[in-house]
Amino acid sequence: MEEDDRTIVLRGTGVSPGVATGKAYVFDRLDAQISFYRLEKPALVAREIKRLRAAVKASEEQLKTLKRRLGEVEGVKPVYIIDVHLMLLRDRVFLSTMIDRIRELNVNAEWAVRLAVDKYREVFEKIEDDYLRERFNDIRYAAQMILRNLAGGEQGSIAGAGGDVIVIAADLSPADTAQMMIDRVLGFATDIGSRTSHTAIVARSLEIPAVVGLEKITRVVRTNDTVIVDGSAGLVIVNPEPEVILRYEEKRRLAQDARAECLRYACLPAVTRDGRQVAIGGNIEFVEEIPSALTYGAEGIGLYRTEFIYVNREQLPTEEDHLSNYSRVIGAEGLSWATVRTFDLGGDKFFSNPKLAKEMNPQMGLRAIRFCLKEIDLFKVQLRAILRASALGRTRILFPMISGVEEIRRAKEILEEVRVELEGEGVPLGDRIEVGAMIEVPSAVMIAEALAREVDYFSIGTNDLIQYVLAIDRINERVSYLYEPLHPAVLRMIRHTVEAGHAAGIPVAMCGEMAGDPLYTMVLLGLDLDELSMNPMAIPKVKAVIRETTMADCKGLLEEIMSMSSGVEIRRAVEDTMSRLFPAEFGANGQ
Ligand code: PEP
Ligand code: MG
């Protein structure tokens, strides 16, 4: 297929699953064409500031209209990111940064927008954490809207696509993505982007197949070319042969059937055919994700990554800010428990805190619980809010990056101080508060017996655990080929943790990405995990595997692979078993 003259296959990152075939619409952005001129007279400065203010206002109005229209579309949940962009457009500091540039440098509004964006870029580029660094894109997207309006508002609008097309772009803002839903765009493909970008998150929540990070798609595709976007495989096929189109049409139909079939599992209990029940949690970053977590069948929240409360803020969140978030999670109807992980910030992730110097290796630096135990006042604000919200339902507090017993003891001491304080103030507290340790540092695995005596449950964070066990930076693409969840060292670590937890009579959950990949579900059942918590969209497939397997089969598979010494061998054995037992899902013709 790749040798064919006309057909081009591009590989990128599939960020929203599904298949779409249609005519391309190449969407041009204004980025490259920002004009520059000096304002020779003071009167021109005032006029330029007025122009800028008008463009900001127009952008705000457009977003408000978009938000209203989205609200009118049946079945669409609120797209919170539009509020973030609205907040940015209303932000005085953002506006005055641009106005100051016009005043100080006597330059036109477009150039001032560009300089302001450059200033923010400098700050954000220093952030190590992928997700937080990418929040710079929100500033960029807001600036692009302003630029679009400075240019008269006509250019570069996604609305020009007219629906039923595959949008091809260098990059897309989340607002563009939301607009695509209104216009019934079939799918999209972009030059840049990653799984954690807001655009990817919005695409997933709107269920538009999408592939990003294709590097050169805007150079390869012309408007009206036929394009297939395979968001599940991360592939884009340009000008495919008719039989390829037919094959993908069949694939799309199968995927649709499989999804409908899968959603049937969403709200069924996760019980194996021989009666073993596993608790299923959803991982969330924002409270707005709770409704979709419920739709996909989350029974509780197994991981709420609270560090996202700190994103896009000038000031640190107050206790009330924390409280309003935790109340919505802990008090949510339909969820049996809520695991609130205390914030995993630190190193240079927490860029706005001048107390923290830039670290050479922030992943192993002053982050998570280490940071909390240094910045106790900050930690206490969060703990007070969690305890106050605990009156609303079953609350599990989870401490991240625990590497030794002192840390968990000290964290519990501080929690106790906060509890006594609140009781003294007469604040009602919940009676179902559990304290857990994340097991994501190898030392924690090795002392799991001791840690188990200190806590009510464990939750294994495989994303970090694997990177530390295998010495692979989880965000470094050059070593990603070594990132193997089925490495025997990783499986042994998980087994040891579960055994230590169970010997002490506490349940063991897993909340890393490994828990949400159905390929591993039988292995994890064999390892006796009590709870699996994952990206909500992964739940139906994982439940389907659980409901159609038996513990006897899972144990058999585990026994077979635990005697093997290489990850490659284990992967082959797991894939063989899964494709034999679930041919539709994992066989050669599976999705
Ligand atoms: C993990 O490390 O597996 C985990 C769930 O936490 P995070 O991805 O937020 O580090
Ligand atoms: Mg982690």
Topology (elements, then pairings):
Blueprint: E1 8-11, E2 13-16, E3 19-27, H1 42-72, H2 80-90, H3 92-105, H4 109-125, H5 130-134, H6 136-150, E4 165-169, H7 174-182, E5 187-190, H8 198-206, E6 210-212, H9 217-220, E7 226-230, E8 235-238, H10 242-266, E9 279-284, H11 290-295, E10 300-305, H12 319-330, E11 338-341, H13 368-374, H14 376-389, E12 395-399, H15 405-424, E13 433-439, H16 442-446, H17 448-452, E14 457-460, H18 462-469, H19 488-503, E15 508-510, H20 521-526, E16 531-534, H21 539-547, H22 551-562, H23 567-581, H24 583-586
Structure, described:
Helices cover about 45% and strands about 15% of the residues. The protein has an eight-stranded mixed sheet. It contains 24 helices and 16 strands. Helix 1 crosses helix 6 and helix 14 packs across helix 15. The radius of gyration is 25 Å and the shape is globular. The chain binds phosphoenolpyruvate and magnesium ion (MG). The site of magnesium ion (MG) has 5 residues, from helix 18.
